[in-house]
Amino acid sequence: MNMTHYMQLLAENQPWNLILFMAVPVILAETVAVTELFILLHRPTTGALVNINRAASIAVGAYFVGVFVYLMANAVVPLTSGGQWRGPADVIAVGAYLAGVLPLGAMALIDLRWIGKGWSPETRLARHALAVAGFLVVAHIAMIFGMLDPAVLGAVAAPHAGH
Q1: What is the CA radius of gyration of the chain?
Q2: Is the Cβ–Cβ distance between 78 and 146 less than 8 Å?
Q3: Has residue 160 been placed in a domain?
């Protein structure tokens, strides 16, 4: 069975790639998602939960911008220029993973008040919640297509080098 570059990235350099590219962003994003549910339900405007949500949101947004820049330079550009993509599943998995920079970046910018400075608290909360939902969607698309054997969507397996 072949694997997408998404899965290969996570499988190589164990456990560091798994920690850096999956655990850190997912733990921070899930912290935002879980605290967001309580904030949406109870509508606190201050307190530990709001502070944790805001700190995790800013941290994951900033962190993922770094991941995005690193992977664009060290994976996407070389794979594209070398014609090494492993079919549609590979492109969808990596593309969806990297698309996470949009909602994660938006959450950070909202919490830093760099966008939406004049928004009402309700509008800010709604847009922040939409960004959380957007991240969950692209992250799950990345995971689903990333775990798929690229041959399922028509990629031709590369021949194995002899030993």
Answers
A1: 18
A2: no
A3: no
Position 161 in a domain: no
- Helix, strand, coil percentages for the chain (3-state, nearest 5): 75, 0, 25
- The tally of domains found in the chain comes to 1
Residue-range definition of the domain harbouring residue 134: 5-152
Non-local CB neighbours of 143 within 8 Å, separated by 6+ positions: 93
The CA angle 78-82-85, to the nearest 5 degrees, is 85
| pTM for the model | 0.89
The 10s digit of each residue's pLDDT in 51-73 is 999 999 999 999 999 999 999 99
Spatial CB neighbours of 128, under 8 Å, sequence gap ≥ 6? 36, 57, 107, 110, 111
In a domain, residue 15? The reply is yes
